[in-house]
Amino acid sequence: MTNALQAGQKLRVDTPARRAMRRFTRHRLAMLGLGVLLILVALAVLAPAVAPHSPTKQELSLYRKPPNQDHWLGTDTFGRDVFTRLIYAGRVSLSVGLVAVGIYETIAILLGAVAGYYGSKVDWVIMRAVDVVMTIPTMIVIIFLVSILGPSMYNSMLAIGIMGWPEPTRLVRGQILSLREMDYVTAARSLGLPTYRIILRHVLPGVVAPLVVHATFGVAGAILLEAGLSFLGLGVPPPTPSWGNMMSSAQTLNILERVPWLWVPPGIAIMLSVLSINFIGDGLRDALDPRGMETG
Amino acid sequence: MKRQLLAVNLFIALALILTACAPVDTAPAATAMQEPPTERQYGGTLNFWQPSWDGSKDWFHHIKRDEVTTWMWEELFWTTTGSFIPVLATGYDVSYDGLVYTVHLREGVKFHDGEDFTAEDVKYSFELKYDPGILPPEALKAEAERVEGLFAYKQGEEGADEITGIRIVDDYTVEFVLTDPDPSFFPGFLGYVEHPMMPKHVLETLDRDELVAGTSDYWVTGPIGTGPYQFVEHVPGQYVEYARFDDYWGGKPGPERVFVKFAPIETAIIMLEKGELDIVWEAPAEEAVRLQDNPDIDVLVADNVMGFWIQTPNWHAGDGLWQNPKAKQAMLHAADRQGYVDNVMHGLGVVRHSWFHGTPFECPDLVEYEYDLDKAKALLDEIGMTADKRADYNLSLTVYPGNKMRVDYAVMLHEAYTQLGFKTSVDLIHASSWADYRNGRGPRGTEFDFAIANWGPGTNPYVLEPYMVGTVDLGYWPLDVERDYHWNEYSANAEEAADLWGKIFAETDIEAQKPYFQQLDCILNEEVFIPHLIGESWIALKSKRLQGIDLDLNVSVYIVPMMVDMANWWIWDPDADSQ
Amino acid sequence: MTKYIIQRVLVSIPIFFGITVIVYALYALAPGDPLAMLLGERAMLEMTAEEIEAARESLGLNDPWHERYVAWFSRAIRGDLGYPLTGGYTVMELLQQRIGPTLLLMATAFVVSLLVGVPMGIVMALKQYSWIDYLVTVLAFAQLSIPSFFLALGAMYVFSLKLDVFPTSGLQTIGEPFSLWDRIHHLIMPSFILAAYFAGVWARYTRSSMLETMHLEFVTTARAKGLRERVVVVRHALRNALLPMITVASLSLGHLLGGSIIIETIFQWPGLGMLGWQATLNREYPILMGIILIASTTVLASNLLADILYAVVDPRIRYN
Predict the structure, then answer these.
(1) What SUPFAM superfamilies does the record point to (chain A) (predicted)?
(2) Closest CB from C30, C147, C208 relative to A295
(3) Which of A227, B298, C5, C186 is the most buried (most CB within 10 A)?
């Protein structure tokens, strides 16, 4: 009886989250993107269980076999299974995206919250720092940093991560500036709650929605950046596969023309993941903020 | 639902668009290819490839023969292994005591401005090259320091305003006087690629400081030399243009113009196929395989290049165990080098087993290290590098990412060493970061154990001597570890090797040195002085238009082998011919 | 208005200083021994400690970093960015040689991306949730999701080699006199590929911006007044939706330059991107610093310009 009542109440209460959820599920491309991404993530997470072969074990006699029963996407120059490498590469590429974005969104929340909440001089300094980093050509600095730190998965994450924060910082600050004057925040302040609590409990939750949207686009961008770095010899070093280094190692006309199973799968994987993440971001944006907002 | 299906279809369509980029187009040429004439033809434009050039104004730093400058600048000799090709000199004599090299210059050589090339220019060119004002203060090669007075001159010492050891005897004879005899002097100095001949009569009218600092406009507007082509224009990042020099001493060259075009290799292959380039002088085997089917392209393979890939253990790491020959032999046994040559090099390479393998100096009873993983493990166990110990080693394979084949080589070794139980990683190092690694400032500190590099006897078989019996560091491992032990300090054969080098240096004739070299090679073979693994064939791609290339030359690894006779290249235009 | 402009200019000054500090910090914090790069490791081995010290001293590598910053800044502000480690050109001369091609490429790519992206965005917004929306959305995102190096090689393979409609690379046909058509012919492939990504960005941006304005009161009012839909869209919604793009577009210049690194390298387009990549490879810090400084200052100036322009066309800004 009680349970039924609660369930009934839940159904009746139309929370903003619920409305957003409904709008998101109506966004067909977003749902499709979510589906595809879930599959990609599941494959990546479960790679050791799902993969039919080892991603690094070489079998030189299996030189570039086209797709067949044993090797669904064929084998590469060293006789390694392309399908296996593809899903292991997903682990690397997706985690580069997630971690890099995680790094800069964290920086953004900290700086944006401080700037937005305290205002005045602190705000001025942080916002000028944002302006400075925003004017600097990101890609050149990332390349410079990775070339100094040495190419590795963690350095790619780090370099992308420490260059991406200005835009979300602005976003967080802007949101906080408007939230700060909201009634419930003013009320909390007059109740004498400590500042960090106000920021944590009352202000930040309002910032999360736009930040999540921004982050999805960021993840897609970071995956592409990693691919670009691989092309320049600054990506994840072999034999660890990433979608980027699988594609860039196939950058010869011979492979392009005659061994398509070496570049089509990672190419499609990059496209699918970037597309799905963008669709999800789009759907989230439409769902969370029907007025639309700035994009990157 | 319908819309979802549509979206799915769109995904698939996009995937297909990607795939559609790869149509296979192998239609054979409809008509039989015309045979090119055998005689040199005159006229036409030769398009030559160069991956990149720093594009600086400062050609002075290029006062050495490279693929770009060799069209206009020449040197006294080209060196080949054990011999030489005379260029601006016709030959040389060595005095009985080995201290005086008398070089006879070619007569009738003219600079591009019509002035004669004489002994004055030779002395001037060397003194310009070693001018004390040149920054950075380049360290001298051991062979250069042998020249009497050169070191003092380079140091800018009081009163040393010339190199006393370079003496003009007459207009066409120059003497090089040495302080000590050195069989390496000819291949390492006189015939080395760093001394192109400059026009004294032009340069002495210019501001010497600007010339030396590299800021002089001379290097931009019109450097001249004696080569078959004269400089026209350099557009940074795009091309260098040369025009034919009709009075070239070797006879009038064929093509009227030469363009040295800069492009990355992937782009260059397409340019070659489109006819925008005539020669890509160093191509990956991967592309050669594909272009073998193209009737308009010739794939040239030079197997006789005396350079190869090495992967050398850091002797200082691993408790000194890497110094044990058996450890190095094990590393050779662990790698399927033939499989690599087949798969990655597409057969265009060769497995080597010793330093002089494939040369006349090869050990007569060469031991071959075939692929045998179990044997490798047994050897390592035998010297105390047991499985549990191996798990503690961090082997870092450092390799330059610009060369895909070499990266693949590291990938192959990675697998081999992982099989042995080592912790292994591939570290991509751009050439400029090399210094960091060696100084222990790289991500791995001093813990890097292997470097993959390109080395070999080249044209100078003596090049190994300072590393074996001297105290010269091989240069492939960190600098901040103790560097006071060398091959000759731990090798059981060090004494014998030193003795052999002594015998080699006592002979002036290379034929007489040969048996000693062969004995030496047996030691190198057994001790695996540096594991020398893969000999890479030199692959060049050229258009059918380009004629007159002689590949049968045994030349250095320092410059494109086929450029020895590029003055003889000519362009044949089959379409123009048939009209 | 004047007050607003002065205010904006004043704010730009500390930003400019910030840029120079960052640029210099990158240099000062970078590991690696420029001297070793210059001389070669083996050469340094054979030098005595005094020789190495003397070389460092003469190249100014020994001073503390803040002193070098002040020295560098006071020279940089006068346009003297120093010499690269090798080569007789000054950094300024090198930048002057390379900035032209880069600006040409970037400007073309920028215009192309707007011409492609904005209409896509408008279509997406007007036909929201229709099949056209989905089709264009997928197209727009496809542009965002192919790595540019792959697009470049693929395009070169298809359009240069197989179809033979575009030259492979470079600024112009080498050996022939300059002609405008020839330059455009060479410009098309690299600029379109560089533009592809940004077209996707603009499409997405325009779409959301349009959707936002279409729901605003004045648009609704305009509709209510019975204006034809096309007039509403063009005169009211579009204008107001595109205004904020001035700012976003000016901020994208830095990203365009970043994207040009790979494009310029593959297409042998002798601009700042290619120079920057070579400078990274060769550890030519002075060149790299020069490029970052020039690029950032350009972005800063264009932001300033965009803000002022924006204030001119949209008076509300001035009073905020």
Answers:
(1) MetI-like (SSF161098)
(2) C208
(3) A227
